Amino acid sequence: MPKSQSLHDLLPHLACSECQQPQRLSIESAPTDQAEEWQTLLREQARPEHQIICGSCDRTYPITADGIPILWSRVLEQTFDSLDNDVNGVDPTEQDVKAANIQVYDQISDAYDTEGVHADEVTRSRLVNAYCEATNSRVGTHVDVGCGAGNVLQFFADVIDGPKIGMDVSLSGLRAVRRKGFQTVLGDAEKLPFPEGSLGLVTASSVLHHLFRPDRLMQQAHHALSTGGVFLTDFDPNGRAAQWGWLALQLYALRRPVYQMLSLGRRRVFHGSEQVQTWNAVAEFHNKPGEGFDIGELQAAIMTAGFELHRLFPHNCRDASVNRGSFVKPSPRHLLVQALSGRNPFSRHNSDTLLTVSVKPAAVPVMQPDGQISPAAKRQIQELFAEGRSGLQELTEPREPQDGDVVRAA
């Protein structure tokens, strides 16, 4: 398929990341001075020839010379502008975290693909089983956030019928994904460039812990999904398992020199040099000893975003299904670390990683199981109240009701 045709096919599925208004995007030639500025910003060899213009807010976005739309948020654009600066490894900012992810995955995208990270049949089976258990739908647009090498898109290629779009911050990775036949867009996981209610499935495998504010992705996914749409995450660290003991921490401290000395497959990818190690430590923002995700807090964040949580499943990498059996097969590494921490590595609650499956309900649930008003309902009430108060403030003189006026009960 010609590049121009492919991009025009993709455009109706995108929205401005600034105002998120649907179907107001158009493609035009990029002015030379602006194109040269974007070329420098993106560190591209070829100058962008075209741009995307939002008809609602007039914001412009570059399209790479080979046809990848760059629908970045303001923060992500600023991150590219300061990409040559050192990241703060001690107290990283949102831009530091984004910059570290760009640097890491631009450096290792080819190796990440050839090493087959998270590309095995066990992972495919677990993700597909989780999706099929949550919904009977097999039609809809699938967006894989943080698509990496495109493995998850391949997992669902024959499962869900509809457009399949990979989104990431790494142009190197996106080019690899496009070579596999999928559509791609560079965008910010915390400000998704997709119209409201337009998606059937949003996947984010090994993504939440790479985000400065993972709750923003949950909120954005809820906004972009249609009613009944599924939000599926996996490979995020279990906070319970991340509470390592002293002996486990001593072993962890030895990992960098060992990884650099020995060729250890996929681990070598992330520890090939001191610079890549520093970037990776910041990119893995919530994935380190003592961090990870508390199961209760993760559940609350998903429900606050407005989802019905279908399944929150602690598991180890060898679990091919989401069946809550009593026995979990831990990896040798996980078995050793948990044993050194004085914890049972065969307990489900001590599993290494977390999978979540959530569904966008037909309406915002008003009550929680404990009888309290749900956070999403509170937010909707606050928005309605703010809207009503704003409308009252705009009325400087009383007026008679007009035909077509909508009257809300107080």
Structural account:
- The chain is α/β, with parallel strands linked by helices.
- It folds into three domains: 3-71, no CATH class; 113-359, Vaccinia Virus protein VP39 (Rossmann fold); 373-397.
- It has 15 helices and eleven strands.
- The protein has helices at 3-10, 32-42, 74-81, 94-114, 121-134, 151-155, 171-179, 214-224, 246-253, 255-261, 266-270, 274-283, 295-304, 332-340, 375-394; strands spanning 25-29, 50-54, 60-63, 70-71, 142-145, 164-168, 183-187, 199-205, 225-237, 308-315, 353-359.
- The strands form two sheets. It has an eight-stranded mixed beta sheet with strand order 4-7-6-5-8-9-11-10, sandwiched between helices. The protein has a three-stranded antiparallel beta sheet with strand order 1-2-3, with no helix packed on it.
- Strand 2 (50-54) and strand 3 (60-63) form a beta hairpin.
- Helix 4 runs parallel beside helix 7.
- The longest helix has 21 residues, at 94-114.
- The radius of gyration is 23 Å and the shape is globular.
